[in-house]
Amino acid sequence: MDVWLINILVTFCISVLITGILIPQILLIAFRKQLFDVPDARKIHTAIVPRLGGLSFVPSIIISMACVLGVEFLSVDTTIGMFSINEVVQICFVICALLLMYLVGLADDLVGVRYAAKFVVQIIAAVFLVSSGFVLDNLHGFLFINELNPIVGALLTVLVIVFVINAINLIDGIDGLASGLSAIALLFYGIAFYSSREVLSSMLAAATIGALIQFFYYNVFGDPNKRKKIFMGDTGALTVGVVLSVLALKMSGMSTSAIDDLKINPLVAAFSPLIVPCFDVVRVYLHRLMNRRNPFLPDKCHIHHKILALGVPQRITMIVILIVSALFITVNVMLSAFINVTFLLLLDLLVWTVGQMILTKAIHRREQKLGTDVKLYE
Questions:
Q1: Whether the Cβ atoms of residue 281 and residue 170 lie closer than 8 Å to each other
Q2: What does residue 209 show for φ and ψ, rounded to 5 degrees?
Q3: Contact 82, 199 (CB under 8 A)
Q4: Helix (H) or strand (E) holding 107
Q5: 8-state DSSP, 171
Q6: Rounded CA Rg of the chain
């Protein structure tokens, strides 16, 4: 077996182990200090649940990667020569961006942070990443545009990073949804990067999956009555958003034999795993503006709220959305060899819009059956 595949798997296992150690301790502290996500009219859960699960993510990611890389550098002197200075600089700035999001997320989970302040910190984190070389400088045919002006590319990259971070944060509405969608995307990225010999990126994906899998168990299967259930909170959603935006940008700039031989459009491979949260956040923002609401204030108009309004159980809703995400990834990657990325995006938007219309009509029919005064969806 390839030594770097072993290292990637070991990174994953260490991350699972560390997260498994940290989450029970976080639960213990949360209950002792009364740090809960209290139910209200907007939220789906009915029991008090700690929302500090994301507190375990960044330590698990950094420690697992640092341990494996450190041991590898000590045991094989030539290993460090595998990585360019640019890759080392990038991973350093990724850590800076992660820590920034980690701190602002923790502050928001504990005492609350205004969305304007969060946006400012997100922009600072995005500037860190852009300055290290994560720049969307080629649209690979999207809108029939290829290479971008460096300044335009840098500004667009900041916008993309902030957008992806918020998309992951806003999709975190039911058990297992944000972590499940992120894990599917990370699995795709991890395999693609490993096949292209981008081992640092593959290790980052593996370390994050390790943290998410352990969290997923407590989030989906944990019993709140036994003090075993936890939410990721902004701390987790914001940091996972940073990782996903980094890996998406890295993949959008790849041109390797693995991608070229299959004729896969790098932009499609980069952003197809993020279609569900990104499409959902755009629809939600437009919905709020059309109804003259503040687009930055939370409500109950996300895709999972629509499916729940049909009477579908929460866990089935989560599974359905994860399957939809996996289908988008598979179909888009397969079709990118034959269809221009612009037309492929229009096809995705058409499918998404038709699906939303079908859901809306089904909700209205259910409301009519239950009574004219019943409102299942905002």
A1: yes
A2: -60, -40
A3: yes
A4: helix 85-110
A5: T
A6: 21
The tens digit of pLDDT for each residue in 143-180 reads 888 899 999 999 999 999 999 999 999 998 899 999 99
The overall pTM is greater than 0.85: yes
Q: Any idea how long the chain is?
A: 378
Taking only the tens place, the pLDDT of each residue in 261-310 is: 567 888 999 999 999 999 999 988 888 888 777 777 777 788 998 999 89
- Check if the beta carbon of residue 174 is closer than 8 Å to that of residue 45: no
For residue 114, give the amino acid letter: R
| Cβ-based neighbours of 98, under 8 Å, separated by 6 or more | 58, 61, 62, 239, 242, 243
Q: Which residues are within 8 A (CB) of 28 and not within 5 positions of it... i.e. 6 or more apart?
A: none
Residues 6+ apart with CB under 8 A from 134: 90, 93, 157, 161, 246, 249, 250
Q: What is the 3-state secondary structure (H, E, C) of 175-227?
A: CCHHHHHHHHHHHHHHHHHHHCCCHHHHHHHHHHHHHHHHHHHHHHHCCHHHC
Report helix, strand or coil for 77: coil
Tokens coding 134: 């994560």
